[in-house]
Amino acid sequence: MLYIVATPIGNLSDITFRALETLKKADLILCEDTRVTSKLLFKYKIEVPLDSYHHKSGENKVRRIIDKIKKGENIAMVCDGGTPGISDPGGRLVERVLKEVPRVKVTPIPGPCAAITAASICGFPMEKFVFMGFPPQKKKRKRFFEKVLSSSSPVIFYESPHRIIKTLEEISEMEEREIFILREATKLYERTYRGSIKEVLKEIEKEKIKGEFTVILKNG
Hints:
2 domains, 5-stranded mixed β-sheet, Methyltransferase, Cobalt-precorrin-4 Transmethylase, Domain 2, 5-stranded parallel β-sheet, 8 helices, Cobalt-precorrin-4 Transmethylase, domain 1
């Protein structure tokens, strides 16, 4: 069986009972960074082997994982924080497993997700929304933001601390909109920003930029 296990996006107390039970009974836990997941396992006294699986993992790693599943091992997959498969390579592994081991049961263990966490407090009507992951780092950025601005529904995307200023500047040059940003969600220095893009940009520029950003642009 392959379990897709959501883990805390910051505060380790946000783990669910079911997630803990699943991790404890797994034969192997796949994670993006073993150093990050080790902290979670140490807190809850979980002694299960870890192996890395991330965007740079090659075919040999994928084959070893699939072979373990074929042998009947229970594999739990987590990411550094949140729900695997949402803007990370976990989805590609699930696709391969389902294709090569069709009898396997892929079970979701739901929990935290940064996009949904931000959506719950943004203050915009969120009956419909579009999630677009991370903007391209170099090429096709303008096209990405054109799609963001042309959406008739609010758009959620993620951004790193290294590019948040550049991203907000690029969008504001194209069109001014109302925006909500959640930074360091559930962590000690959690911070929210609301207002026009230029207003939020001025606030962020005054601060020490750190942590991941979840951005929601109000459209429609």
